[in-house]
């Protein structure tokens, strides 16, 4: 699939699993930090395996700890990407990115998204393939206010990390099957998030429609 990063190769998936097995929640934090810092470690593998690990006998961390570590890692890693953009050092990624699987067109996609949709992109892109890894760069270049960037990043990461971890819990002992189908996870999770947003919008509109207007006669 064209959107799948080079990160979704078996060696890196196995690396992510090994780090979590060795370091627990700290490993989740580290891996998610790397992904948001423009190093394409697959968050799908990280959080799915983390979720599956929470339902093993005598787990080393809880579901809440896994989600917290994942979101915190994403936020801190995004600060690094933001800093590179803010300081005008995207050239470092353009020059050395190929060594770790980053392609120039990945950066261009994130740049176009930010140009077209503005600061709100930082929130929505955290739930999108490719863009979520690199959106911090154009946000930094645009000098987006740091704390607004941080809040949008955290709010966007929470549903993504939460749903991936929950999917891992449901996968449980079937993890070995899931880890060979990671390229489909983006579609499934994104579809679930979109469906949830649509449901909330429809519910809100129906709620407004049921309210009487200001000139409606009282009973």
UniProtKB/TrEMBL annotation:
<protein>
    <submittedName>
        <fullName>Unannotated protein</fullName>
    </submittedName>
</protein>
<dbReference type="Pfam" id="PF09335">
    <property type="entry name" value="VTT_dom"/>
</dbReference>
<keyword id="KW-0472">Membrane</keyword>
<keyword id="KW-1133">Transmembrane helix</keyword>
<feature type="transmembrane region" description="Helical">
    <location>
        <begin position="184"/>
        <end position="202"/>
    </location>
</feature>
<keyword id="KW-1003">Cell membrane</keyword>
<dbReference type="InterPro" id="IPR032816">
    <property type="entry name" value="VTT_dom"/>
</dbReference>
<dbReference type="GO" id="GO:0005886">
    <property type="term" value="C:plasma membrane"/>
</dbReference>
<feature type="domain" description="VTT">
    <location>
        <begin position="41"/>
        <end position="168"/>
    </location>
</feature>
<keyword id="KW-0812">Transmembrane</keyword>
<feature type="transmembrane region" description="Helical">
    <location>
        <begin position="149"/>
        <end position="169"/>
    </location>
</feature>
<dbReference type="InterPro" id="IPR051311">
    <property type="entry name" value="DedA_domain"/>
</dbReference>
<feature type="transmembrane region" description="Helical">
    <location>
        <begin position="12"/>
        <end position="34"/>
    </location>
</feature>
